[in-house]
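Progress against Task 2.4 (sequence-to-structure conversion) is shown through the following example record, which the project officer requested during the mid-term review.
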Amino acid sequence: MNVLEVVRPECSAAKLAVGNKREALQAVARLAKLSPLLSGVSEDEIARALTEREAVGTTGFGKGIAIPHCRLKAVEDFVVGVASVPDGVAFDSLDGADVRLIVFIVGPDRDSNEHIRILSAVSRVLSDADAVEEMVRVQSGEALAESFLRHLRGEPLPEEEPGRRLFQVFVQDEGLFKEILEIFGGTEPRFTVVLEAQNASAYLWKVPLFAGLWSDNPRSFSRVIISLVRKPMTNEMVRRIEQVVGPLDESEQVLVTVHDVFYGGGSLTT
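Structure tokens generated for the chain above:
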């Protein structure tokens, strides 16, 4: 799915005035209802679904942004909209900062892969502080939608390319693991698995021959992300990983290997 096709410009509003998170979610539901695609659900149903999702964990991810989202059985396609709150609103954000820009997603109660892809694309756009600041400053919903779409156009589009490469990413840092997994989860969720692992040192330090080489139990966190990635996305995936990790040649906590796949058959459900 091309994320540009699910952004609904009619569901955008600049300079929202809301006093708290509840009012913000109600305003989001009101905006979402402007799309004809949501004619089969009420504003209150949307607001309730958004609120239930917030109970799982806040979608105020910090740095002044929030991405409230929900899935509804009566919805057939995705509705993505954007709203600015220049004065800010408390949103239980992870960093405690008020939210100034909200991008919301209302989708069908299926297509988890597409929902993840949309979330990931939106998240990457909103990680650009300059882009967020530009969107907060615009004066109309029309200009806000245009700005959001312009920044989204920089996101790589899916390629109908059968050839794939196998990524293996070995990670020894839990914080980096979560960020790297988000990259693969937002791009190839259907073809990605995670294995728990341990370095050989976790076993060797217990072998009498090697006793004394480690003063403590070696690093215990270790995960392997394995993913089949479309060939045209190879360089982009490496670039995204290095955005999180820094230059891979200098990393001592992340190892990436990429292999050509001679044959691949079947799929995995998420």
